[in-house]
Design a protein that fits this description.
The chain has three domains: 13-78, Winged helix-like DNA-binding domain superfamily/Winged helix DNA-binding domain (Arc Repressor Mutant, subunit A, Orthogonal Bundle); 101-130 and 372-469, Alpha-Beta Complex (Aspartate Aminotransferase, domain 1); 141-367, Aspartate Aminotransferase, domain 2 (3-Layer(aba) Sandwich), CATH 3.40.640. It has helices at 13-26, 39-46, 50-62, 91-96, 101-113, 142-148, 158-172, 186-198, 218-221, 238-248, 269-282, 306-309, 321-324, 337-349, 356-367, 371-393, 419-427, 454-469, and strands at 66-69, 73-76, 120-121, 152-153, 156-157, 181-184, 204-209, 225-232, 235-236, 250-255, 286-289, 314-319, 331-334, 407-411, 430-431, 433-434, 444-448. It is of the alpha/beta class. It starts with 12 loop residues before the first helix and ends with a helix. The chain has 18 helices and 17 strands. Strands 6-13-12-11-10-7-8-9 form an eight-stranded mixed β-sheet. Strands 14-17-16 form a three-stranded antiparallel β-sheet, with no helix packed on it. 40% of the residues are buried. The structure holds pyridoxal-5'-phosphate. Pyridoxal-5'-phosphate (PLP) binds next to helix 8. In the C-terminal section; belongs to the class-I pyridoxal-phosphate-dependent aminotransferase family.
Length: 473
């Protein structure tokens, strides 16, 4: 292979070498599993310091592009669908924003299949229509909305900010001051604005592995490097997090600590306190995504949000999507004023204006005298579904009991999760998302149990048991 590196004044040489190696893998000059020259040899061929090559290799390894094995040297990572027996994520593709053909094919197949009669849709992350609380809307006319617009500034519609502050105070017994609260077009926009305003291309962000953030393209398009931190039943593993912080100069830690998407795990209080301490030590802000936080099955066992434990260093994201439906597209961020200013400037620069209509409608819902009763009934109904599923599935599969939210993370008893197994789920009419969509290698699937009625849950469990008997899961 040719090692003539394009040298420009603008790009540091280590980046040019990384680009060269990546391009040669993409165009087939370097093949999966192919060995690279030793660091010393490569430094001599290219004519750079050995420390430059050490940095190149460390970064390429972190991105999953190459792997290093003691005794065998450095080689192009061959952990790809189809090449490996193991169900492994193609990290490079995920990080670079080019999802594999297999991944895209699977999503298309799931979407097509979802149109068929009788399929069990445990894949969508939405609240099902029959559980969306029905709020009556007051008589209003067009001008009321125009009038309401006068009550909106760069942070959103003031009465809604007040209503959200009251909701959080009532449900969590802590205060998100109205002046530190900004309305966004859903939790998704909140994450997008944080990425746009607080991060630069190349920055490193630590997230859980698995995490739903792997399924969002916005990190890839912004050039953000995601580093997955393994989890246990208490949430993100802090020993691994500290390692990532030391290795990659992590700029933010982003996590969804309560009823996590996709595993349903809730971070324990002790882990939350230790996480806060660790991030304070390294002066790293935490982004807490609490999209499911309003859905505990038993409010008495609620673990306090990170924001309540450390108001100064935590940026908090909330959303109404999981309690009144995602079409409402209302989310919020609570952050120090200086940060909110930056976020609202980013929103203005990107022309992402916030319509007054969903804000006024959401305010009607939150101000409805029946709101708390309806929310309590929603939690109870999801809990009934979850309990029914867990009782039926019994000991047949390994899954932990979520204390709230929508998801069950079902560990499969097979050693792998291949495309063939996913096809078998689809043929059986089970729509679900595999672990690799969430950046995880373990054979597991995410099931949205909140979406399923009693009959669907019964059929789902029967089908899973049948598939297990024939060795699919
Ligand atoms: C954990 C988490 N955060 C944020 C979002 C985005 O929420 P929204 O629908 O409010 O944009 C989702 C959506 O599924 C989610 O699961």
């Amino acid at each position: 292979m040719n090692w003539d590196i394009e040298r420009t004044q603008k790009t540091p040489i280590y980046q040019s070498i990384m680009k060269h190696i990546t391009q040669n893998i993409q165009n087939g000059q370097l093949l999966p599993g192919q060995k690279l020259p030793s660091e010393r040899k490569l430094a001599a061929i290219i004519g750079v310091n050995r420390s430059t090559i050490v940095r190149v290799m460390a970064e390429l390894e972190a991105k999953g592009i190459i792997k290093r094995q003691q005794g065998s040297g450095t080689m192009v990572n061959d952990d790809k669908w189809g090449l490996s027996q193991e169900p492994v994520v193609d990290w490079h593709q995920l990080i670079q924003g080019q999802q594999t053909d297999e991944h895209q094919l699977l999503m298309t197949q799931i979407k097509e299949k979802s149109q068929e009669e009788g399929v069990i849709d445990a894949y969508t992350g939405e609240l099902p229509l029959d559980l969306v609380p029905a709020f009556d809307l007051p008589q209003s006319n067009w001008r009321d909305f125009i009038e309401a617009d006068k009550n909106q500034d760069a942070l959103g519609y003031f009465p809604l900010r007040q209503a959200i502050s009251n909701l959080v105070a009532q449900d969590y017994r802590f205060t998100l001051p109205v002046e530190h609260l900004m309305i966004t077009s859903g939790g998704h926009q909140a994450i997008f604005l944080i990425v746009q305003a607080l991060l630069n291309s190349g920055d490193a962000v630590a997230i859980c592995q698995p995490s739903f953030l792997y399924a969002l393209n916005l990190f890839q398009t912004a050039g953000i490097r995601l580093f997955g931190v393994p989890m246990d039943e208490q949430g993100m593993r802090l020993d691994f997090l500290e390692n990532e912080i030391l290795k990659h100069r992590v700029k933010l830690v982003m996590l969804n600590p309560t009823f996590q998407n996709p595993t349903g795990t809730t971070m324990s209080l002790a882990r939350r306190q230790a996480l806060i301490k660790l991030c304070q030590t390294y002066k790293i802000p935490i982004i807490e995504d609490d999209a499911f936080g309003l859905l505990p099955f038993d409010k008495r066992t609620n673990v306090p949000p990170l924001k309540k434990l450390d108001p100064q260093n935590v940026i908090y994201i909330g959303s109404l999507s999981k309690i009144i439906g995602s079409t409402t597209k209302i989310g919020w961020i609570s952050a120090p004023l200086a940060v909110l200013e930056k976020l609202s400037i980013a929103r203005q620069d990107l022309d992402l204006t916030l319509s007054i209509f969903p804000q006024v409608l959401a305010n009607y819902a939150l101000s409805d005298v029946t709101f708390q009763d309806k929310l309590a009934s929603l939690r109870a109904q999801i809990n009934v579904r979850m309990t029914y599923f867990l009782d039926l599935i019994g000991q047949d599969f390994t899954c932990h009991r979520p204390a709230g939210g929508f998801y069950v993370w079902l560990k499969l008893s097979t050693d792998t999760l291949t495309k063939k197994q996913m096809d078998a789920f689809l043929s059986a009419g089970i729509l679900c998302l595999p672990s690799f969509v969430f950046g995880d290698k373990t054979p597991a699937i995410r099931l949205n149990i909140a979406r399923l009625n009693r009959d669907e849950i019964k059929r789902l469990v029967e089908k899973l048991q049948e598939l297990k008997q024939v060795g699919i899961c």
